[in-house]
Amino acid sequence: MARAAQKDSKTESGKKLSNVSKDDLLKYYREMVLIRRFEERAGQLYGMGLIGGFCHLYIGQEAVAVGMYAAAEKGDQVITGYRDHGHMLAAGMDPREVMAELTGRIGGSSKGKGGSMHMFDIEAGFFGGHGIVGAQVSLGTGLAFADFYRQNGNVSFTYFGDGAANQGQVYESFNMAQLWKLPVVYVIENNEYAMGTSLARASATVNLSQRGASFGIPGETVDGMDVFAVKDAAERAAEHARSGKGPYILEMKTYRYRGHSMSDPAKYRSKDEVDEVKATRDPIDHIKTMLQQAGVAEDEIKTIDNQVKAIVLEAVDFAQTSPEPDPSELYTDVYLEA
Amino acid sequence: MASMNMIQALNNALDITLASDPDTLIFGEDVGYFGGVFRVTDKLQEKHGLTRCFDAPISEGGIIAAAIGMGAYGLRPVVEIQFADYILPAYDQLVSEAARLRYRSGGEFWAPLTVRSPYGGGIFGGQTHSQSPEAIFAHITGLKTVIPSNPYDAKGLLIAAIECDDPVVFLEPKRIYNGPFDGRPDQAMKTWAGHKDAEVPEGHYTVPLGKAAITRPGSEVTVLAYGTMVHVALSAIEESGLDAELIDLRSIVPLDIDTIVASVKKTGRCVIVHEASRFSGFGAELSALIQERCFYHLKAPIGRVCGWDTPYPHAFEWDYFPGPARIIRALNSAMEN
Questions:
Q1: Which domains does chain B have, with CATH numbers?
Q2: Which of B34, B58, B125 sits opposite A53 (nearest CB)?
Q3: What is the pTM of this model?
Q4: What tens digit of pLDDT does each residue of A52-106 get?
Q5: Which of A67, A108, B121, B336 could make an SS bond with A100 (beta carbons 3.0 to 4.6 A apart)?
Q6: Helix A22-47 vs helix A283-293: angle between axes, to the nearest 10 degrees?
Q7: Domains (ranges, CATH) in chain A?
Q8: Residues of A with CB below 8 A from B129's CB?
Q9: Nearest to A42 by CA among A321, A325, A323, A319
């Protein structure tokens, strides 16, 4: 069964366009542009010293979060690592709360106490933002067990990167998930670099969709720069998990345009390499072309761009005007408060 | 002699050991091709080759476990764990294997490995990139735990750690890699240039493990610190106007208890400073040891200035960080009695 499900998926724009509604195109475009503009602003605020510490931008990977969420249903859970801002926006979290968490303000999603890597939203089913590489993979497996136990038909979307794919606990999780047929979709965002180390330098095998093969977990390699390819694969994987067949692995081939974090000069790859991806594989350019092919007017696209710009500016404003938390907050949320 | 910051001094120590001992090798996340996220292993792969300094996958448990195996068979591995917060997946291997191998083999096997890891706050890293976990290593019999506070010591202690036949956790205070930090974030960043402890001999030398340094001699109160807090405490002492004796522990296991006891018997007062949270922190052990040995010399309760007993917060960096104001308050309190 595992073998049968192995295949590479990639939409051929011409063929697929007929299946895509204009509304979907506009929706995904808007969501992807929101992530990109938000992250660009976050980068600026970091440069201005308004965001301290660590800040891992999602620019380049937008199609993964947006395409995956398009296949999620209400009640499904999401959990990811530290490159989490894009996921939070795709999950529907308020951009103001996300930005205010970055600036460490009381209006942030964790009252400013978590920061860039540690954000949560119970209403969005967003179980974090985790700063320790790979740790969330086992937690996501536990979320899936809770779904299984309650027989609620929900799925745990558990994200991690190509670097985290080498952590031992990932394979402990794979075994348990398949043993107990847990409804979990493991999404490996392969952006080619684990911090400064390319996949090939740290991995004996680079086809990450096959990492569950010895457990009998089916996997697919997906063009993570094509939001529709992502969505198609996400639907297949979610259906597999939801129907009681157990876990499913999606390896998203994607790319991060910026450094690993804001302090990373990215000297481990060439500018040409980055420019090449931007010019030929950009996920937003891709959907923009589809919009144009579908006959959407430039004005309509421009309107979305302007709306997104306003949302992001409002978030930036909120993140600077929301007060800093009161020092008494330092000691709250440590233990259950009586 | 050359002027070095801590990164250069550590790099120099690694370079010297790689050149002098063919059994020494370095591996860890991003340490090879990229030269380390803090550049401590910069150019070592280029100079010493792929088998002496190489990249490992993100597998902290596996990295430390493999190093123990290498060590048990005669190699002398030096691994980097990118942030001390990331050591925890490997804690089982350190505690149950590295620390205990010698004892349970009746002295037949041991694992001479060094685990280098940047630690500590002052960089807005939040709860997974700012912690000071020294106490959880100090508690494990069989491990040594070393924390330098300046470039000279960093080099000498690292060479001593690598040459030591016991497993050593070598914690590097990342806030002071590029310059001493006195706990006053509103002031301009300093570099190591011109600092007396930034003058580093270019050749091989060691600073013995288990020997504290008296950073500032004094008569009124003893201050114990290590890592970044040595500089913060020194600045606080200067501002307080007190004639305090500042002791830089340099290694917490083994601990130079004799130097500590001699000082506290002289001053009769003691304030302990560390970044880690207070409850069950290393200050608690120091405090117990001092009262056992110096009870009848003490003129005041032993003070502790530490991080608060909360996770390291993102929003309250300078409220959490035990800065000069809190240290001065503790010094004054010690003097009141």
A1: 2-200 (3.40.50.970), 213-336 (3.40.50.920)
A2: B125
A3: 0.91
A4: 889 999 999 999 999 999 999 999 999 999 999 999 999 999 999 999 999 999 9
A5: A108
A6: 150
A7: 6-321 (3.40.50.970)
A8: 53-54, 117, 131
A9: A319
